[in-house]
Structure formats: C-alpha cells, structure tokens
Write a structure and sequence with these properties.
This protein has 2 domains: 251 residues, 2-Layer Sandwich (Beta Polymerase, domain 2), CATH 3.30.460; 63 residues, Up-down Bundle (Methane Monooxygenase Hydroxylase, Chain G, domain 1). The chain is 59% helix and 15% strand. It is built from 9 helices and 7 strands, in the order βββααββββααααααα. The protein has a 7-stranded mixed β-sheet. It is rod-shaped, with a radius of gyration of 35 Å.
Length: 322
Amino acid sequence: MPQKKIISKNIQKIIIDNPVTPGGKVVWINIANARKTEIEYLRKKFNFNLSHLQASSSKATAQRTAMEYTNEYLFLILHFPVFDNGNIISGEIEFFVGEDYIITLHNNNVNALNKFFNLCKKDGNSTLSYEFESSAILLYEILDKLMIDCNEILDRNSINITNLEQMIFEQKSRKAVSQILATRRNIINTRKIMLNHKNIIKKLSKFESGNIPEHKIRKYYSSLLENSKRFWENLEIQKEMVEILNNTNESLLNNRLNDIMKTLTIFSVIVFPLTLLAAIFGMNTMEGMPFVNNPNGFWIIMAMMMFGCTGMLIIFAKKKWL
C-alpha cells in the first residue's frame, strides 16, 4: 500500500511502493497555494532551477504552457479549464518530474487533481503507477484524470446549447442573447486554455523512464493524445453550433425589428393625410378657406381625412405591404 505522510498544511506526500518490485518506488508531493515557505522547501530538498520555482509561486500566473527538460528533471506548466461561478477560468498546474518523483503545485482550484491524489492515498493499489512504479506513468495518469474531468465542461456546454435552441425557437430571443454570450465566452476561454495541449502530449510521448519499455510509455501517451484530439474536435463542433445559434438569434431579432419598423412606417404614412389636412385647415387664413363658414365644415373635413386614410390602406393592400 502507498505510504502517506503529511509534511505541512500545504504540502502533502505519498510514497507509492509496490513490494512485488523491490527497490522501486515513486514519490508524489502535492502542494497547494505554494508560497515562500513551500518554495524554500523545494529549493533546499531538490535544488530546482530558481526560475522554475519562481514560476511555481501561487502569486505568479503563467499565460502559456511551458515544457523544459533539465539533466535532473522535467519542468512542465499546464492549464486546465475549471468552473468558477458558471464561468470558465484557467487552473494552472506546475509539474516537476524526476526519475522517481513527481511534484505538483497548484492554487487548489483543480478538483480533479486533488481527487486523484486522495484516491492514491486511499486505494493506490488500483493505479497503473503502483503496478509500474514509474513517474512517467504517474504523470500519464494525472493528465488522463484531468482530461476526463474536462469532459464535464463539454457536457455543460451541450446542455447550454440545447437550452439555447429551445429559447430561440420559443421566441425568447432577447433572453437568449446573454446566454449565448456566456456560452461563447466559456468555449473561447476553454479553447485558449487547451490550445497547446496536443503539442505538449506529443513531446511527452518521447518521455523516457528507466524501468519502463519505451513502447509502453508511447502507448499510454498516444491514448492521451487521442483523448485530447477528441476533446478539441468536440469543442470545435460546439463552437460552430453556438455561432450558428447566434446567427439564427440575430436573424430573428432583426426580423422582429423589421416588423416593428414596418408597423411604425405604415402607421406614420396612414396618419400623414390626417396630419396634412389638419395643418392646412389649422392655418390662420379665415378668408378663402373652404368649409370654414359651412355649418357642416367639421364633418366634411373629417370625411376627407377618413377618405385619405382609407385610400392609403387600399394602396398598401394592393402593394401587399400589409
């Protein structure tokens, strides 16, 4: 069984040691919210590159993935999408991978990593890393669990897209606008976060481990690469679907706006004869103004107005503008 040991509040450690393969073991140190104390511990114990340690501080946030081999270890920065109040944000993880150890540093917002660490503490015998006692295999398992957790984002996007379809075709276009913008933003953020994962995994497939045949490592990382490709393809499909829904919603909004403008235009044109006659008979020219002195003048003018309105309606009907 893996031996477990808590070093400090923010530093936890497990030792994966399979008694069937004497002499071999893998140490996994998991550090959440690394600050000066944790960084100093790593510097003294492992003598890591200072620039790598600085990048691993909880106060430092990398904007891109990074991968660098040294003579003693592999340094890796990866980002994974995580939910935060309905929005997708970047969860950053730094990896230090040596021959017989892995060190992960994060801001404690990547739940899948913590879940897998707790699984290794409770039931590490069921993991591949327990069988092979290899840091390369443990890294594969961590990345695999993180990729599987990303599928939840695809599921949420699919649910949001289905809800958007219903809203749009139920004539709730105005309400759908904010939902479309939120879904598009989440998909765009996920794309930015996962953009370089395929290239990193391709490079990791060439990872060497002294006690594991190269073809086995390639096999596992090839599987991880396929999962990454499928995730990206599904994300592309969802991006296209949201764009189509956005275009459809804009068309419906434009059609509704056109109908409103058409109604207002028809109303203003129909009222035009009334306004014209009212303006004419409202002029202060008493002499020579017809119907002014006629006892039925008001009704004659009203009849003229009604005739003008009716005429305009007939013209609109014949033109099929109504």
